């Protein structure tokens, strides 16, 4: 595998840094990883990130890193379009915006005008806001939400910091979702309340749609590291796509996954076919006229573009029927079954 970390180090020629956090210890740490990059001081990340008339596709070819301070709301209530795994107090936070991976179907491409990557360095403020919520009820918090935090971990160290914070707050559980093959899990404290969550796709889907992401084998190797360290991992077969030969592709992926990880090390699994909100799809269809996955004639149902019910159910049931040979149905989640 081409090292995700190496490609990350090489990918930023320019770093934009907000003046407010120029001397923040985390900023200084991040900057030390990019000694050759040109540093441009800005007042507010939105001046660069939200600028009008940006060429999204060109930007992706030369993604810039923006270091900023997150202001205003830091922790958000989870969306109904996302699996909550039965957690009543489901929240997410955005330690970063955008992603070094380039999944063609990624909803962030419909959400933001910029392909640049923003990392918020003021983790202490995220901790303080989490603490306020914890005073009233338990919190289940998804960290890797409008980004994939894992490939950034060698530079940010944020997952390790969140892990240590979680250990000292017994009513907090965190989920870290990733497609990364980076083996960071020996640096994260092991706890039932810290949930490494691996999004897995068959290689034909990865090759077609999940550009710049690691292969299935590399993702499984990272998940295996987490398992060997003592974590129970979550697996996400979501989003699933109806590529040619999808039955065989998904069957082989599940067999390989279970062979490497073993069912007893898997906490739970969620499955779901591709869906995307109407607003994001409208933007993405304008932006990516040649993308087969974006231009596919999905049906619009309750504000989300998705496969027609018959196809969606057939695909999800097919995968569920394979999974129940390995793990109990109670540990398999499908969004509409909640
Ligand atoms: S890994 Fe997730 S956040 Fe990153 S591009 Fe793919 S879908 Fe988007």
Can you characterise this structure?
There is one protein chain. This protein has about 350 residues and is of the alpha/beta class. The protein has one domain (about 5-335): Alpha-Beta Horseshoe (pyruvate-formate lyase- activating enzyme). Helix content is about 35%, strand content about 20%. The protein is built from 14 helices and 18 strands. An 8-stranded mixed β-sheet has the order 4-5-9-10-11-13-14-18. Strands 2-1-3-8-6 form a 5-stranded mixed β-sheet. α10 packs parallel to α11 and α11 packs parallel to α14. The mean pLDDT is about 95. The structure holds iron/sulfur cluster (SF4).
User: How much strand content do the residues show?
Assistant: 15-25%
CATH topology label: pyruvate-formate lyase- activating enzyme
Q: What is the terminal separation in angstroms?
A: 38 Å
Question: What integer is the average pLDDT?
Answer: 93
* Helix proportion: 25-40%
Summarize the biggest pleated sheet: 8 strands, mixed
The ligands bound in this entry are:
iron/sulfur cluster
Structural class: alpha/beta
CATH first level: which class?
Answer: Alpha Beta
Radius of gyration: 20 Å
This entry's quaternary arrangement is single chain
Number of separate strands:
18
Q: Major sheet: order of its strands?
A: 4-5-9-10-11-13-14-18
Shape: globular
CATH architecture: Alpha-Beta Horseshoe
**How many structural domains can be distinguished in the coordinates?**
1
Which regions are unreliable across 5 or more consecutive residues at pLDDT < 50? none
List the total number of helices.
14
